[in-house]
Amino acid sequence: MEFRHLGRSGLMVSEISYGNWITHGSQVEEDAATACVRAALETGITTFDTADVYANTKAEEVLGRALRGERREGLEIFTKVYWPTGPGRNDRGLSRKHIMESINGSLRRLQTDYVDLYQAHRYDHSTPLEETMEAFADVVHSGKAHYIGVSEWTASEIRQAHRLARELRVPLVSNQPQYSILWRVIETEVIPTSEELGLGQIVWSPMAQGALSGKYLPGQPPPAGSRATDEKSGASFIAKFLTDDVLTRVQQLKPLAEQAGLTMPQLAIAWVLQNPNVSSAIIGASRPEQVHDNVKAAGVQLDAGLLKAIDDIFDPIVERDAAKTQSPPQRP
Ligand SMILES: NC(=O)c1ccc[n+]([C@@H]2O[C@H](COP(=O)([O-])OP(=O)(O)OC[C@H]3O[C@@H](n4cnc5c(N)ncnc54)[C@H](OP(=O)(O)O)[C@@H]3O)[C@@H](O)[C@H]2O)c1
């Protein structure tokens, strides 16, 4: 495993981190979830990402149980707040009330006294940013989180939050956006702003949820047990990537990956890590073998010819529109 600084902070994170959206507490049984966490630890992953909302709070519980007994100082545990965790109108968003209640719930479920990074899972247009940032500052100053971050915030939202964070003396160190060969919307605005202000990206769905793994074939039904067959939740999220056009182009990556001595999942993950503003790529996995395969993307350098060949294949279909970074106009 290789390690990078999280933005300009002193915190080191594993280049590849493990996240449990869709899988823990939902798609996979607890044994498989625990086996994936064990595989992550065995292969040198120290950074784990979850959220209060995943599997209606069950994902944090599963991760807390799977990490029990590990040396806490050897781990970086990240969670998030914003999406609904209960039926009430205050069980969501970034009000002071919900942030204070949600961090306590997350710590209880994760069985830890603090998280290393507490992230705003989206921008809350119904709460003054000052209120949100003051609540985050209090979470940090009370020792319940070491650093704060945001997720899917625009460049201008990041800039405003950064100004307040400095005033409140609280370390805003990261953004968590979607980023992959197919989804490059952060490149024109979010990344330059983050570089200027010292935030690093912790990128999600680097493999486009499995679409870049090569296992989904154009015109064929998805393989049994894959996310695309998980009607409870996964299938609806991955659907946008499973068009014949995307999947035909993905198959063109196969010879390029082979030539580079990589599997297709490794190529997809290594691709996001070529960007120096990316601090970590968060991988998901439904089976431990996937973790063992994917972590080999750490430390891989892709040459300019290969990057150009990838651009040539995907250029007509890559999503680059900065306006695709957005939070719901109203609280969900
Ligand atoms: N901040 C946000 O709004 C946000 C949103 C989404 C995700 N995230 C974070 O990002 C993490 C990762 O997201 P993701 O799960 O979509 O990431 P991903 O790495 O793009 O996709 C992971 C999925 O791809 C399949 N896969 C993984 N390795 C494979 C391999 N070697 N061969 C074939 N298939 C493989 C598995 O699904 P199957 O085996 O089931 O097909 C796995 O669950 C989440 O857990 C969460 O922590 C954050």
Overall description:
With 332 residues, this protein is of the alpha/beta class. 37% of the residues lie in helices and 14% in strands. The longest helix has 15 residues, at 96-110. The radius of gyration is 19 Å and the shape is globular. The site of NADP nicotinamide-adenine-dinucleotide phosphate has 29 residues, from strand 10 and helix 11.
Topology:
Layout (H helix, E strand, L loop, with lengths): L2 E3 L6 E3 L1 E4 L10 H13 L4 E3 L8 H10 L8 E6 L14 H15 L4 E6 L8 H13 L3 E6 L4 H14 L3 E4 L14 H8 L2 E5 L29 H5 L5 H8 L1 H8 L3 H10 L4 E6 L4 H7 L9 H11 L18
Parallel strand pairs: 3-4, 3-10, 4-5, 5-6, 6-7, 7-8, 8-9, 9-10
Antiparallel strand pairs: 1-2
Bound molecules: NADP nicotinamide-adenine-dinucleotide phosphate.
User: What value does the average pLDDT take?
Assistant: 97
The helix fraction, in percent, is 25-40%
SSE series: EEEHEHEHEHEHEHEHHHHEHH
Distance between the termini: 38 Å
Major sheet, described briefly? 8 strands, parallel, barrel
Order of strands, main sheet, comes to 3-4-5-6-7-8-9-10
Find the structural class using helix and strand composition. Answer: alpha/beta
Bound molecules: NADP nicotinamide-adenine-dinucleotide phosphate
Radius of gyration: 19 Å
The DSSP helix count reads 12
How many strand segments? Answer: 10
Which residue ranges are poorly predicted, with pLDDT under 50 across at least 5 consecutive positions?
none
Taken as a percent bin, the fraction of beta residues is 5-15%
Described by the principal axes of the CA atoms, the overall outline is globular
